[in-house]
Amino acid sequence: WLALFRSAGVCGLPEATIMLRLALPIGVGLMAATLVAEALRSGGNASSAVASDFGSVIAGDTSDRGLLDCHGHGCATARRRCYSECECRHLDHIERRRFEKGSGWKYPKRQSVVIAASRDMGRTASTWVFNAIRLLYRQAKEACDSYWLRRLSRDKLEQRLQTGAHLLVKTHEWKGEISSAEFEDTKNMFSNVIVSVREGFPPDDNWMRVATHVIHFEDIVEYDEAEGK
Prior knowledge:
alpha/beta
């Protein structure tokens, strides 16, 4: 994973710069995006909840006005305004192009459920990792719906897979939010679990046990030890 991020030229850059770098129509960026999408599809347990022919649009996903779509006002499912932990879908203007005829966007034959997890603390680069995965899918023009979910559940994941797109979820500790039995049932849906860690802070052992890849804060973020930032 880290090698793929580096090949796209995004390591050590702020998120706004990552967006610009990945949006450029350069071969290395597109190649890296395609490789990451392939790696995600082939790793772990690819969900078979919804399957479609490559390149087709899912009947239930024809616009960005679905029950889970938020445009700053919340979504019909959550029934509350958008807030810092909004669990609705937030597609950017480029991701919304997948609904345009002839846009070249593709839906996967097999969906992936990718988890970007970290402890609930600042400065682990988990948001960077989450956005890097999302933007690489975007660069490859593979439909991917990204969400923040505080409390994971099979029902939530299955509901969000109904669009036929890949599913990317950012989350923190699950222990204390759901039971071990619920997690064991839900984890069978995960294709990849990317865990962000940082030196000096103990990792979340519960996520580390199921991690398919670990991203170290110090490997991707320029850090000034003297200033502590």
